[in-house]
Amino acid sequence: MLDILLAYIFLAAGIVSNKYILASISAEFFVALRMLISGSFLMMYNLHQTERLSYRQVKNNHLKLLLIAACTTLIPSLLKAWSLKHMLASKQSLLGSIDPFVTALMVYVLFSEKITRSKMLGMVIGFIGVVVIILSKGSHEPGYELLFRISLPELAIICAVIISRYGWILVQTLLRNKHYTPVQINGLVQVIAGFLALCLATYNNQLKLYAITSYSNFIMAFLCTIIGGNIIGYTLYSYSLKHHSATFVSLAGFLIPLLVAFFAYIFLGENISWSLLVGGLIIFMGLSIFYIGEKMPKFFKKS
Fold first, then answer.
1. CA 217, CA 203: separation in Å to the nearest integer?
2. Among 116, 203, 205, 208, which has the highest number of CB atoms less than 10 A from its own CB?
């Protein structure tokens, strides 16, 4: 249990660090720096492995790799970074926790995988929680409102979850065919996405820092997101998957929004409203039914 807690502490600290960094840097430049640095670390690590990435592998799958880099990393990271600049870190983290529901709907549409009664019940309850969170508007949030009170930052994070999940489905096809190792695919798509984000930042003249009150705090936050979030956090997460069930690890993942809310309150001065707290609790109930139903499907069948 300690390994899971430590993993989510580092991941949550990375999200809060991102919020701090984005006050002084554009979303494009931030994604470029973060992905190029972390991707380079992974690619250097691959050089010391027996299964090294070859030029032929990249050449044979270059179009698919570009699509994967765009869907798993580039577009979702840009959308998440932009939305994080314009909403509470805790709110974004709560909206991002709908990933299991989005995954179930996507595999149903793409692969006709059956959605059980328990999953459907959990998804309905979860989406009710999302509605409650969307209706929770604070004075700190800009308008950007669209239809049904959904704001552009809220739409951005929801779209990021959908696009990212589609990208990871594409990643699974490469991993299952044993074309790449997880380290290779992660390092490669991060470097590609980082390069594309750098090109975008250059085109938009966003290669600059602004409004930095403390360079030491900025550097510490950047190290926290790269080393703590990208490297230590995801490494501990992978380790926990080997020692605990995927269901337990996924359900425990709801600790991330709670930890984000705590860190954001301590370091960023963010306050969480009662409506946001209620919405998060409803999503947690939906996730619990969704995951428990996978382990005990007979419990939800008609007697």
1. 28
2. 116
